[in-house]
Every structure is written in structure tokens, then in C-alpha cells.
Design brief:
This protein has about 140 residues and is an alpha/beta fold. The protein has 3 helices and 8 strands. The chain has a single domain, classed as Nucleoside Triphosphate Pyrophosphohydrolase.
């Protein structure tokens, strides 16, 4: 039997005190929530804090685990968290061409890649927590 090759990622839906959503504009997928692959020996929570800082410059506190989107065919598990900013300054990186906080309605319209908008909506709707979406 072959050794499993799975990817686990962690992403954050970060809302500031004005209820604006943190988005990054990646070079491949356009506007999305910050996040990325969990490294070996790293917790999901630590990964989402690290990825958010690396991609946006913003330090966050994880408020809640929301759920999982699993791409079964690609062997990818995307874990999703709610976070709030606690420091840092907005800045771009090689993974983020633009970053910013945007009003919710505007932010949701900006996110067009695959099911990323649905992921954000599920995180914002507490009655869905915790959720599991397989596709």
C-alpha cells in the first residue's frame, strides 16, 4: 500500500472591530482569506496564525474553529477558523499582491475562486458550526 499524501491547510476569516473582512489578493486565485499549508510538527492553530502574519502582516487571535472543507479527489483538508486582529500592520508578500480589510458585502463580491466565498459564508454563519463539507 502506498504512503498517503494528504495536504492539510488552515485559513482564517478575520473580522476587525468595524466588522470588515481581511482579504489577500494572491497571484493565482485572486482575493481570498489568508491561510496555507500546515507544516510538519505544527498545530492547526499555530499554522493559521503564522500564515495570516506571513500573507497580510496582521497578528491574529484565533477565536473559534469553524469547520472543514475536504477536497476528496485532491486529498486536501482545509480547516477554517474565525480570528480577530490583535496587532501588526497590513503589508504585502510574495503570496499577497494586495491586502486589506473590506466591508463584508464588498469582500464577498471580491472572492470569486471556486468555493472560497462559501467557506467564508459558512464561517460567518454560526449555525453551520462545526461544519464538514466534502466535495
Amino acid at each position: 500500500m502506498a504512503t498517503p499524501k494528504h495536504i492539510v491547510s488552515a485559513a482564517a476569516v478575520v473580522l476587525n472591530e468595524k466588522n470588515e473582512l481581511l482579504l489577500i489578493k494572491g497571484p493565482r486565485r485572486g482575493w481570498e482569506m489568508p491561510g496555507g499549508q500546515v507544516e510538519e510538527g505544527e498545530s492547526l492553530k499555530d499554522a493559521v496564525v503564522r500564515e495570516t502574519k506571513e500573507e497580510s502582516g496582521i497578528d491574529i487571535e484565533v477565536v473559534k474553529f469553524c469547520g472543514i472543507f475536504q477536497n476528496v479527489e485532491e486529498s486536501i483538508c482545509n480547516t477554517l477558523f474565525l480570528g480577530k486582529p490583535i496587532g501588526g500592520e497590513l503589508m504585502t508578500s510574495p503570496e499577497s499582491l494586495e491586502v486589506g480589510f473590506f466591508p463584508l458585502g464588498e469582500a464577498l463580491e471580491m472572492v470569486t475562486w471556486n468555493n472560497f466565498r462559501q467557506r467564508i459564508e459558512y464561517c460567518l454563519e454560526e449555525q453551520h458550526h462545526p461544519f464538514y463539507v466534502g466535495f
